[in-house]
UniProtKB/TrEMBL annotation:
NCBIfam families according to UniProt: gltD_gamma_fam
Dihydroprymidine dehydrogenase domain segment(s): 25-136
RNA-binding is among the record's keywords: no
Domain of life: Bacteria
Keyword list, A-Z: 4Fe-4S, Iron, Iron-sulfur, Metal-binding, NADP, Oxidoreductase
Cross-referenced InterPro entries: DPD_II, FAD/NAD-bd_sf, FAD/NAD-binding_dom, GltD-like, Helical_ferredxn
Pfam families: Fer4_20, Pyr_redox_2
Protein name per its UniProtKB record: NAD(P)-dependent oxidoreductase
Length: 493
């Protein structure tokens, strides 16, 4: 396609890849839409206006060169388009699938402002990277000359994997430690297959393993090694654990059998997709089949639970959220997908108690109303007196978000500084924690956030770590600092 095919947004309507019919996609955990055919992808990329100030790139946490690879796609230069998108992102096909583009790049597209519908950036990004995998354009990690320095990364989620990719490219020996038996973090065990099929994650992980990155799976810091032991083992550390502590609901009956945490529920479902033995699923505790399900929360995790319960064969699925639709934190696209598949949303409502003798049978809820804005600028929900109602429930899933675990205690490292929210305290310029040579990135620093921000943080942390390690090696060679025997041998080599 020639360059004169650009700027076709007036005559060429916006077209996302077609979704499968709701009743069909609710029967499995496959992604709900296939990728574009090549001519369609090129045509949709050609709708880009190539504006002088690309708001899409500005509002992308990775600052991807979006207009440039859209132009290359429109011109049929697909390999170049992929290579450009891959230059700024360690996982472009994952971002293309799970980023909330409606709140980021596409939501800030100039064409969207003009009323013609945003360029379908995420779908094109998914297309060009999947095409690259199919055609063999995804090359092995280009490992630089070995530097003789070792890096340890705690956490194999998006921040840790992103940093591992960049640091290995720079020539460092990289070891990744993760508590789970598979790498990927929430990409593997938190996000359902209908949003992100698992082979998409495993092939990225395998690429890193093929580059010589060593993964220590089933490894818990504090149990298998202390933080101090890892610091002795490596020249620098990165903490990228994410945040996994579920936020609690303070209501009578919350400990009743059948009231479960979202991550436990989603992990059980994803493990079944791998063929693992999951007793809590097989026994029914974490399986929605044949049950009346109530999900509490309004974020993307709540949407994942709602849509998973539908696929497991729940008889009814209701989502209880204390604000209205316009003020919910989750993606509006995900809400629309859930409604298409049969979920019911009960807006402006919150749980008051959980009922049942030994096993939950109902949620007693109260209606809410929106009052004055809170500290974040959002209107705060208030109880509407005398408005209680009851929802029958055999399974209640709490999806109110996540907080940081007590890492200083878990890691046996009381000197590891934290904020009042429990996240790790880092220097804003260097991303280093209170411990020399220990850096942190992703949700464990910023709190529960988006995968794309974790990828960005991992990339940024790798740059800071590279500078730190370079200076450390120079100082060691100059004899300015004492160097442990292992490190002195590696630097001399």
């Amino acid at each position: 396609m020639a360059a004169d095919q650009m700027l076709k947004f007036v005559a060429r309507p916006q077209a996302y890849p077609a979704k499968r019919e709701p009743e069909l996609r609710a029967e499995d955990f496959r992604e709900i839409a296939d990728r574009y055919a090549t001519p369609t992808a090129e045509a949709q990329a050609g709708r880009c206006s190539q504006c002088g100030v690309p708001y899409c790139s500005v509002h992308c946490p990775l600052h991807n060169h979006i207009p440039d690879w859209l132009r290359l796609t429109a011109e049929g230069r697909l390999r170049e388009a992929y290579e450009l998108s891959n230059a700024t992102s360690a996982m472009p096909e994952i971002c293309g699938r799970i980023c909330p583009q409606d709140r980021l790049c596409e939501g800030n597209c100039v064409i969207e402002f003009s009323g013609h519908g945003a360029v379908t950036i995420g779908s094109v990004e998914k297309f060009i990277t999947d095409k690259a995998w199919d055609e063999g354009w995804v090359e092995p990690v280009a490992v630089g000359p070995e530097r003789g320095q070792s890096v340890g990364i705690i956490g194999a989620g998006p921040a840790g994997l992103s940093a591992a990719d960049w640091l290995r490219t720079a020539g460092y020996e990289v070891h990744v430690y993760d508590r789970h038996d598979r790498a990927g973090g929430l990409l593997t065990y938190g996000i359902p297959g209908f949003k992100l099929e698992k082979h998409v994650v495993t092939r990225r992980v395998q690429r890193l393993k093929d580059a010589g990155i060593v993964f220590h799976e089933g490894f818990e810091v504090g149990r298998d090694a202390t933080m101090d032991e890892l610091r002795q083992r490596h020249d620098a550390l990165l903490v990228a654990t994410g945040v996994y502590k579920p936020r609690a609901i303070k209501a009578p009956g919350v400990a009743t059998d059948g009231v479960v945490d979202a991550l436990d529920y989603l992990t059980a479902s994803n493990r079944k997709s791998f063929g693992d033995a999951v007793p809590a699923f097989d026994g029914g505790a974490l399986n929605a089949e044949g049950k009346k399900v109530v999900v509490i929360g309004g974020g993307d995790t709540a949407m994942d639970c709602v849509r998973t319960a539908i696929r497991q064969g729940a008889t009814s699925v209701k989502c209880l959220y204390r604000r209205d639709r316009a003020n919910m934190p989750g993606s509006q696209r995900e809400v629309a997908n859930a409604e298409e598949e049969g979920a019911e949303f009960v807006w402006l409502s919150a749980p008051a108690s959980f009922e049942g003798e030994g096993k939950v049978t109902a949620v007693r809820a109260t209606a809410m109303r929106l009052g004055a804005p809170d500290a974040t600028g959002r209107r705060a929900p208030e109880v509407d007196p005398g408005s209680e109602f009851v929802l029958e429930a055999d399974l209640v899933i709490k999806a109110l978000g996540f907080d940081a675990e007590d890492l200083p205690t878990l890691f046996g490292s009381p000197d590891l500084g934290v904020t009042r929210w429990g996240t790790l305290r880092v220097d804003g310029k260097s991303m280093m924690t209170s411990l020399d040579g220990v850096f942190a990135a992703g949700d464990i620093v910023r709190g529960a956030s988006l995968v794309v921000w974790a990828i960005r943080d991992g990339r940024d942390a790798s740059e800071h770590m590279h500078r730190y390690l370079r200076d450390k090696a120079k100082a060691a060679k100059a004899g300015a600092v004492p160097v442990p025997e292992r490190q002195a041998t590696m630097v001399a080599a």
